[in-house]
Amino acid sequence: MDTRRFALACALCACLAAKGAAAQQILVDQGVRAGELQCFPSAVDKNAWYYVPRTAHLVNDADGKPAFSFLRYVVNRASSEGESKGITQADGGGIISFSAVYDTPDDMRDEAQSELRRLARNPQAKLQGPILFKTGRYVLISSVLRQQGENGTFVLASGNAPVFEGNPIPFSFEVNPQQSKILLESFQMATPDVSLQYEMTFEGLSDSYEADLIVHWDEVNKNQTLGFGVQGGYGSYATVGANIEKGFAELQESNAIELHTRGANPNMEKLLQKVHAKLLDLMFNRALPEQQTQQQQPQGQQDMGEMIGGLVKGLQKAGQQAAKDYYTPTVIKFSVAYEKKEIKKTGTTTFSMNSQSPEDINTTFVMNIGDLYKKHGEDANRFRTVNLSDPAFQQREVHVGIDGSILPEFDKYVNSVTVTLRKKHQNGQETLQEIVVDRDTFKKDTRDFRMVYGWQGDDDRAKWLEYEYRTRWSFKDGGLHETDWTKTDINMIDLYAPYKRSTVELVGNAKGLAAAGVRAVSVAVEYPFFDGKRTREVSVPTSEEIDGKTLEITLPAGVESYDYNVTWIRRAKPPLSVSGKDTTGFIFLDDLPKEPAADGV
Q1: What's the per-residue H, E or C state across 48-62?
Q2: CA distance linking residue 198 with residue 137, whole number of Å
Q3: Residue 88 pLDDT > 70
Q4: Are the C-beta atoms of residues 134 and 163 closer than 8 Å to each other?
Q5: pLDDT tens digits for range 405-446
Q6: Same domain, 407 and 436
């Protein structure tokens, strides 16, 4: 990455840290394709536009060459007792290290700026910078490294991708001797079989429509394409993108869901996208690749690696232009699976679509590691085979990878995160390393957090790679959370928050409740947070719209359920209340509980 791009990335990070993600509100239904960039207008400044980053590539070093190395190493070993061969097989393997980054070239951005003013018919239109992603994932994949007899694609690494353009991800992984040989042969091809996919999500405001979405739950619960109405057979990860689209179409054809529009004909394609986004959020949770591999896959569903590999190979086969054109502003991606929610709901619910609402948009871009061997195969700094005869002079660096999406947590929830490394050497000695990450250290330009341990009688080289680590989270309310010691041999500790922020949405017809004598509805949500409980409350008068009102909660990782209490405050009558436990993210307010029985009855 050149100096200009690096400076721009650092300036952007500082700006976003100061102003927050809320300053970058965009209108997702009014985007345009300007040159090779997808651009979206600001919701608060008619002249401001933001673009979606388009390219991913290897980071260059100070000499302008790819910061990449493939070290193949050999470890000599004596023959086992009883062997009499003159030539024996040595141990060894390979270590691959590189850094990747996504960004947007200056010429691509300049071309888009010029084209944007023509498309927007506004000579003052200006690209302010890249969109700030809400979340991101990366998956590093290869087919040639799968074990003998396995099918599909081998996932080398996956994790949280930086949400800021220009922030590199370092990779380092080890392969066995056979994989090392196969990978070297692959690198000598024009398109090596190592690719990196970014799957990023950003948020914006959708247009409002004079329309109502009516959901008949009794009919929805009969649909088998979406995984409802099926007893056992294929687990909770029942569908991927294509099946969900098919299921939604079946719901519309059977009138299980109805869409009623009013006034002039709206943009039906955009409206249906908004409807499908609402249904997807209502009925499904998105599953990460790590979660899916732990579940039984339904018959006929592709392996996660195969699906991602299919996308990568499709882009490579179609050529560079296809990769440039690939942009999917939709809520459903075939490279992920969705877990259906257990919604125990009957009757009918009406959702109003007449307000602007936040909407998640997914985009994917892929990079191949490229023809490095053709250009740098003779460079010993990039490709080398060595014999490791003296381990005493070696040291191990362990990097701590911290995703940019954690930065806002230091404002809201987190004081600091302490990462401790413990290495128990084979001679009985112990190495302890520790780093502390807070807002100040995270804002440093380098963000190069690493810990090092050396050789202390570690003759078993495989065990020398093993170490333990734990994290200690200090929260602003005084709470603490410390993980158990985790053993690993990977030289990258991926630091991610041990909790997730979720939104509980209130659903109800304010006019209908007011007609039933309800003045206001009070909702309280209580949920666990490590060593205690937290509560969020909101009261909504029926003179206001209920749809769109939300409660933000923070659940520990792996916890989905929360307790809720709903109280309907009525005119000239005592209030009615109901309590329960839920995991769906929606609380329905239209169904009033029965009147309490009179005393003595």
Answers
A1: EEEECCCEEEECECC
A2: 6
A3: no
A4: yes
A5: 676 777 777 888 999 999 999 999 999 999 988 877 766 655
A6: yes
Residue 312 pLDDT > 80, yes or no?
no
CA angle (497, 502, 508) in 5-degree steps: 175
Give the rounded distance of the alpha carbon of 433 from its chain centre.
29
Smallest CA-to-CA distance from 209 within 278, 255, 274, 276 is with 274
Q: If 0-12 CB within 10 Å is exposed, 13-18 middle and 19+ buried, where does residue 429 land?
A: exposed
DSSP H helix total and E strand total for the chain: 14, 34
The answer to whether residues 38 and 28 touch, using CB atoms and an 8 Å cutoff, is no
Rounded alpha-carbon distances, angstroms, from residue 313 to 159, 198, 265, 464: 21, 15, 40, 37
Q: Give how far Cα 90 sits from Cα of 79, 175, 559, Å.
A: 9, 15, 48
Closest CA to 125 of 30, 44, 41: 41
Task: Name residues whose C-beta falls within 8 Å of residue 239's C-beta, 6 or more positions apart in sequence.
Answer: 225, 226, 227, 247, 284, 298, 337, 338, 340
440 and 507: one domain?
no
Range of the domain at 507: 500-588
Q: Would residue 582 count as lying in a domain?
A: yes
Mean pLDDT of the chain: 77
Q: What's the pLDDT score for residue 311?
A: 37
Q: Could you tell me if 439 and 457 lie in one domain? A: yes
Nearest to 88 by CA among 96, 101, 79: 79
Does 490 lie in the same domain as 408?
yes
Distances (CA, A) of 354 to 210, 261, 276, 309, 329: 5, 10, 15, 40, 21
Question: Which pairing describes strands 135-142 and 430-437: parallel, antiparallel, or unpaired?
Answer: unpaired
Measured CA to CA in angstroms, residue 250 lies from 234, 245, 246, 255, 258 at distances of 20, 9, 6, 8, 12
115-165 residue pLDDT tens: 999 999 999 999 999 998 888 888 888 877 765 445 556 777 788 888 888
Asked if 465 and 550 sit in the same domain, the reply is no
> Reduced to 3 states, what is the DSSP secondary structure of residue 566?
strand
What total number of domains does the chain contain?
3
Of 106, 103, 109, which Cα lies nearest the Cα of 35? 109
Residue 546 lies in a domain: yes
3-state secondary structure 306-332: HHHHHHHHHHHHHCHHHHHHCCCCECC
